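Sample entry (83 residues):
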Amino acid sequence: MVTAVVPLEELKEIVLNKANKILAKGPLAVQMAKLVVNRGFDVDMDTGLLIENLAQAVLYGTDDKQEGTQAFLEKRKASFSGR
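Predicted structure, serialized as tokens:
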């Protein structure tokens, strides 16, 4: 999948910007997203959606979810703990 085509000399900067955006997210959410993509890739749609729903249910009870919601409501940057 291609999301952008850029000149080679701009590639490193664009990749680093994308990586920093991902790193700014909650570490548990990023880890779970990777798991969902990797495990859901070779399964049927129903199983993939089940994996995604289970991951969301697990994350819903985390401190990071509460912090992300609170930070959004307070219009501030979230400080995730990985818990």
